[in-house]
Amino acid sequence: MKAKVYLLAALMAICLSLGCASGGTAPDDVISDVQNEDDGDDMVNTIVVMETSKGDVEIELYEDKAPISTQNFLKYVNSNFYEGTVFHRVIKDFMVQCGGFTADGKQKETSAPIKNEADNGLKNEKGTLAMARTAVVDSATSQFFINTNDNSFLDHGGRDYGYAVFGKVVKGYDIVESMNSAETSVKHGMGDWPKEDIVINRMYVKGQ
Questions:
Q1: Which of 26, 100, 136, 200 has the most beta carbons within 10 angstroms of its beta carbon?
Q2: Which domain holds residue 85?
Q3: Residues facing 163 on adjacent strands
Q4: For the chain, what is the domain count?
């Protein structure tokens, strides 16, 4: 099955992509609401640990600002969806992307796409996580990327609706920088794929 391409934006006048699209789910089935399990004022943000072949990274989720994106992300984390997937797109001083492909280039089937929360006020700053998507605004599923630079042109209204930020690396950013320095080539028909696979071995909520 040929992967659809995530259109990202023009970076220095070159159109870059943020990887390849979700599995066979049509964008019409967009998840646009979220269940509020905790309406308390003292909510502590969830931390997700991502164990990779490069080392461990800890991610704080902005559940108050991006409830749909974070609940979607946690659904994939808690179902072990990300285990065995790779960082399939690495662009130096821009971003590293993962969450959709295994090392053999096979694209995983996903749940329905979600509503784009790029208008939540969060910025695509260095170290933040955002949802990858196609040219369709509400098309994000499992794939996400970590900004390795301040990418303000990806913010809401920068050039289009934008890319929804939902978390930030709070520990292990040196591991992300190591990923961003990886040599890349064309693999499985896609450019910017690391020559040496960077594998997500495990992801889980810290403390669980």
A1: 100
A2: 46-205
A3: none
A4: 1
Average pLDDT over residues 125-148: 98
- Residue 90 belongs to domain with CATH number: 2.40.100.10
Per the domain annotation, does 5 fall within a domain? Answer: no
Within a domain: 167: yes
pLDDT value, residue 95: 98
Between CA 161 and CA 184 the distance in angstroms is: 29
Q: Mind giving me the DSSP string for the chain?
A: -PPPEEEEEEETTEEEEEEE--SS--TTS-B-----S---S-PPPPEEEEEETTEEEEEEE-TTT-HHHHHHHHHHHHTTTTTTEEEEEEETTTEEEEEEEETTSPBPP----B---GGGS----TTEEEE---SSTT-B-S-EEEESS--GGGSTTTSSS---EEEEEEE-HHHHHHHHT--EEEETTEEEEESS--BEEEEEETT-
Global pTM reads 0.84
162-182: pLDDT as tens digits: 999 999 999 999 999 999 999
Residues 6+ apart with CB under 8 A from 127: 146, 147, 148, 168, 169, 173, 176
193 vs 97: CA distance, rounded Å: 10
